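Students often ask why we bother encoding 3D structure as a string. The short answer is that it lets us treat folding as translation between two languages. Here is a chain of 186 residues written in the first language.
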Amino acid sequence: MSDFTRTIPQEVVTEKSPQSARFFPVPSFDYVTENQDRFNVDDFRGKIVLIHFWATWCAPCVTELPRLIRFAKDHQDYVHVIAVSSDRDAQAKIRFLKKIDAPRHLENLHFAHDPQGAITRDLFQTTYLPETIVVDQNGSMVDKIVGDADWQSPDVARRITGLFMPQDKIKNDKPAQSDQTDPQDP
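And here it is in the second language, the structure alphabet:
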């Protein structure tokens, strides 16, 4: 099995420690969409940006991408997704996106092509696919999801939506615990 097809287990792995205030600014980079529109990652300050690295030859990527597209559709007001394909053949990416009926009209979802690895490998040093870098509204990289994430799961959704929604508005599977204690309790 080559390094490019080996994947991290199904669980979502994070490289952010909640206690750490040490976040790094996202490196500035330009990309071109399949419509030949040019953007810079800094164009989306004020939104959560998911920089998602994938390829059509990566089986977990092929499984994950439709779920990420649904996540982008569900969070259009808060999240911008830059899906960076590592395919060397641009037509392979285009055929795959047509096959899964990927939307071409969502303003918050861009498909970029990185055949030489300038963004994926050189800038972000990504070696395993899929991988997603989470960038907060201020342009800081605050999380990294390695492997096939279930973008429809409550845990992943809470992890991302927690960056832009007040904690009391996030859907939680557990009943809320009060921070206040009854002064008459011993």
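Translate back mentally: The CA atoms of residues 66 and 100 lie 7 Å apart. Keep this in mind for the problem set.
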